[in-house]
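User: Assemble these into one structure.

Assistant: Restating your components, then the assembled model:
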Amino acid sequence: MFEVVAVDGQARFGRLQTRHGSIETPVFMPCGTYGTVKAVTPEALKEVGTQILLGNTFHLMLRPKDTLIADLGGLHQFMQWDKPILTDSGGFQAFSLKSIRKIEEDGITFRSPINGDRIFFSPEKAMTVQENLGSDIAMVLDECTPYPASRDEAAFSMQRSMRWARRSKNGYGGVGMLFGIVQGGMYLDLRKESIGILEDSEFPGYAIGGLSVGESKEELVRVLEGIMPHMPQGRPRYLMGVGTPMDIVKGILLGVDMFDCVLPTRNARNGYLYTREGLVKIRNAKHRQDNSPLDADCSCYCCSKFSRAYLHHLDKCGEILGSMLMTIHNLYYYHDLVHQLRRAIEKGRVSALVKTILEGWKSSDESI
Amino acid sequence: MFEVVAVDGQARFGRLQTRHGSIETPVFMPCGTYGTVKAVTPEALKEVGTQILLGNTFHLMLRPKDTLIADLGGLHQFMQWDKPILTDSGGFQAFSLKSIRKIEEDGITFRSPINGDRIFFSPEKAMTVQENLGSDIAMVLDECTPYPASRDEAAFSMQRSMRWARRSKNGYGGVGMLFGIVQGGMYLDLRKESIGILEDSEFPGYAIGGLSVGESKEELVRVLEGIMPHMPQGRPRYLMGVGTPMDIVKGILLGVDMFDCVLPTRNARNGYLYTREGLVKIRNAKHRQDNSPLDADCSCYCCSKFSRAYLHHLDKCGEILGSMLMTIHNLYYYHDLVHQLRRAIEKGRVSALVKTILEGWKSSDESI
């Protein structure tokens, strides 16, 4: 199901087979929260190079409800996306709720932010919902260890996540793959322990959870460096909710195979755009009269047709077309970045490419 | 430049040649207020059958400014639309301003709603702005007669509009055509007088202004019926700011060649959708689980791919993709309606087609 085709240092180029076709890794997965990657059609998604997208279990469970999606033929049919879909477990959102929630060994109880309904969410429930959605890759329900957390807190939380992972595995009856999630906070020994426990269940893939939760970039890299050598070699490794282009480059160099993040799409809607020269804030007055494309070396629809001045204008007027074009560009940028890294890994030239990429970002106004 | 190819009753099928190609009439023109038809790319616009679109002089003059657009190569280049563009004169918006404005023979003075700048707008200025935009079809500046208006008020206002039409004609140095605008409120004798005065200037096309301003549907039809037989035969006739599908059918039957309206695009963003069975309010709970397309007989991208349930869900979540898909559908519907009427006029079968269309709308929840 997963094959590592080439390695270059710790970086890997691989292929993952799913029910909806094969994907090349490393891969970036755009977020399709409510059954749509915001501001793009499925056709445009394919054009920018999306191989697989992420659906949010928590959101879809509440609206329009997973049972409705199941009745209508599953999430692929509902949103007209015939390539692979990975769904998160919904745990992260449930834990992030500011309204009343209660976490117990059995599961988590909360009030729906949509209509106030009392909802009980458990590993078993998370599996049922993901089955209803028809995910190609489902995730076990894990407890999100808060940051910062003491060693005892992180250990207790990790152990509960491991028990929930086992319950998820036992409860999952879906047609896709089920990935385990490594927890343990910022403590490397707990992380290693977590990996060992998950390996006993022989998951077809392993995610790294509980990162990008407020820790510094240095902390993120330190933990990742500590974890990666211990992750199972023959299985895909998915770094959840990460990150910036810089994070992704670093992750790939450390052997991560899969990423997801709302950054490219959310930033696009706010006029923050990624280019080979770094981050461009299109709202900046200097773009007002600039007839050149956002990124002259970019082949996306936005850059091949429209000027910075036009994007600046659309952004200023709050025009939907601005969100559409800028989302297309940012996703194209992310996919192209990862695509180039895949090709470089294949040819054993990843260091040289990364050097070039970092050189380009040097002139960026803000960190990328 | 304009050729009437076929007539059926008073309805006409024609061809209008512009600098950016030929268009078939009757034609519906979507509104591209700020240099974008909201929520659609230029490519999608072509796919739904848009032959020509309308740019708003007033809006573009304020943002990003017509001089900037001129510097960047004109509106076609700016928004990447290589088919014809008609621009309104900006008068309607200037007159609609609620903030302080002063109307005099020389022109209208107002404060910019964007930044408070004091702006003087005159027939000559309206021409300069439209020249800067590079319109294929420009409009004279007219005074919008308020509704209701006494005969004296309407007469005074019409006479001023006629003087402004002459000044517009003298001032216009653009590369496109300049259309005159018939005014006169709801008074047929004033309307006829206005037509006569405009004809002396030999405009290449004539618009009917000051309708759809608050009068009843019956009033609109009465005035239109009264005006149309007196409009120059060999020139395109443009009914400004009209209207619903029903208005357009009626207008075409009375010999109107061109229409523009924000209804299909604005309604799309609010989930009001046009179909062969009439108006569909997608927010209605009955669509929640409906796996059928919005309109089974429609060939647009939205109807060929997505279900009512999906559109209902997108609308409920306020997703941009909802606006995108529903705009595509509504524009396709308008263009297809007018396209079918063109073909019917060509074949002398317009009455039969209109009967079928009205039959379909009978079951509509709301008037269409």
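The longest strand of chain B covers residues 11-18.
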